[in-house]
Design brief:
It is a single chain. The chain has about 400 residues and is mostly beta strands. The protein folds into 2 domains: about 1-30; about 35-395, Porin, CATH 2.40.160.10. The chain has 1 helix and 17 strands. It has one helix at about 1-30; strands at about 40-55, 65-80, 80-90, 100, 110-125, 125-130, 155-165, 170-180, 185-205, 205-220, 250-260, 265-275, 300-310, 315-325, 345-360, 360-375, 385-395. The protein has a 16-stranded antiparallel β-barrel.
């Protein structure tokens, strides 16, 4: 009897194995079809869970604790020299965040179009893009004094990259970004950016990169930007939360990085500087209603810091420290880093983090922001904040 049971068990296992193999073959070969014009297909995404705490030292302010997640999934089919970029993300539709808080009684959360663009490799050294793009300007972590990493501009871009020799390459990035279009007003708001830079190899393990940008806003005082979220900072006309900025913006933006090694450990020294050179001494549009500042005041920002090692390979770690100073009208508040303080401008402070990757696709990170308002007489007023983020991220 026992022998018969063993025989039946083995026979059933063999039959189930045969059926499972047949189903796997059918599922992968019969139900998945890729267009014959697609030469390459990339699918990738990431998921992050975050615990975040705010400690506010200003009288009358309240400490805060919240839990959040971020989910992003992208697909990138390539058709010879043309690439289609598409990515969806969680969030609430903001221009500088894809985070979604745990709230509203576990109600369902939305997905948004985070990127949707066409990229054409017209020449070996020239790429043309259009749509809702990843930011085509060369940037570092320290560049968030001008652009939050989640800011995906809508418009057109041209990227040029030419290598002269092993030690020297030059690049240029041009963008034409449609910030807002009003059906009742022909003064549409645009951002035009022109960036040029180079990278040179100083020694075997040392590279230096430098880029300079001119970023100019057009019709920025004609109306508000109809943005989902208005970030703190910038002088604005009295009125609703989406009131128009009282400042013109023509920004000179410098970005540089020195990459090398300390023994076996790679490190990156980064620095960014921004200066809004527009003349804001007079506001010809609505001068009587504006909160104006003298010319060349509150128009400078900078960030400098260092990242030691890189948390990417299994059992690797990373440590970093940065100092940031960003005056009220140095940058457009609605584009800069949304995590520094409560986001926006008119803040200074310290940023530091430690990260560890137990596996190649997993990262644990603790990040601390210690921030103060530079000029309490301007928005957001007295609002000093210490902010801690504890993240677990998985890339796939």
């Amino acid at each position: 009897m026992m022998k018969n049971r063993i025989k039946m068990t083995v026979l059933c296992a063999l039959m189930l194995g045969t059926v499972a193999t047949h189903l796997r073959a059918d599922d992968t070969s019969g139900n998945i079809s890729i267009g014959k014009m697609i030469t390459n297909l990339k699918i990738a995404g990431d998921m992050r869970v975050r615990q975040e705490n705010f400690w506010k030292s200003t009288a009358g302010q309240t400490d805060r604790s919240r839990q959040r997640f971020r989910f992003r999934l992208g697909i990138e089919p390539q058709l010879q020299d043309i690439t289609v970029g598409f990515r969806i993300a969680s969030g609430t539709g903001e221009q500088v965040s894809t985070n979604q808080s745990f709230t509203t009684f576990s109600s369902q959360k939305g997905l948004w179009i985070d990127q949707a663009n066409l990229q054409w490799k017209a020449l070996p050294w020239l790429k043309l893009m259009g749509g809702k793009m990843f930011n085509p300007l060369w940037r570092l972590y320290s560049s968030d004094i001008v652009f939050d990493d989640d800011f995906n501009p809508e418009g057109f871009a041209q990227q040029l990259d030419y290598t002269f020799c092993e030690r020297l390459s030059v690049f240029a990035n041009l963008t034409q970004v449609a910030l807002d279009e009003d059906s009742s007003d022909n003064r549409d708001q645009w951002m035009l950016a022109y960036q040029a830079g180079f990278q040179t190899k100083l020694f075997n393990e040392t590279k230096w990169t430098l880029a300079a940008s001119l970023i100019d806003l057009d019709n920025e005082m004609a109306n508000n930007f109809s943005q989902t979220t208005v970030e703190e900072g910038n002088t604005r006309f009295p009125g609703s939360a989406t009131s128009t900025t009282t400042a013109y913006f023509t920004m000179i933006h410098l970005t540089t990085e020195l990459k090398s090694k300390i023994g076996p450990l790679p490190f990156s020294v980064q620095a960014d500087y921004v200066n809004n050179i527009a003349d804001n001494s007079v506001n010809p549009t609505k001068a009587s209603a504006a909160t104006t500042l003298p010319a060349q005041v509150e128009n400078v920002g900078y960030q400098v810091g260092m990242i030691l090692n890189k948390a990417a390979k299994p059992m690797s770690w990373e440590a970093a420290y940065f100092f940031k100073w960003l005056e009220t009208n140095a940058s457009l508040a609605d584009m800069v880093d949304a995590d520094f303080g409560d986001g926006g401008t008119n803040r200074r402070g310290h940023i530091m983090w430690l990260a560890f990757s137990p596996r190649e696709y997993v990262q644990l990170k603790a990040k601390l922001f210690v921030t103060e308002v530079i000029r309490p007489g301007l928005a957001p007023g007295a609002d000093n904040i210490n902010r801690m983020q504890l993240d677990m991220s998985v890339k796939f």
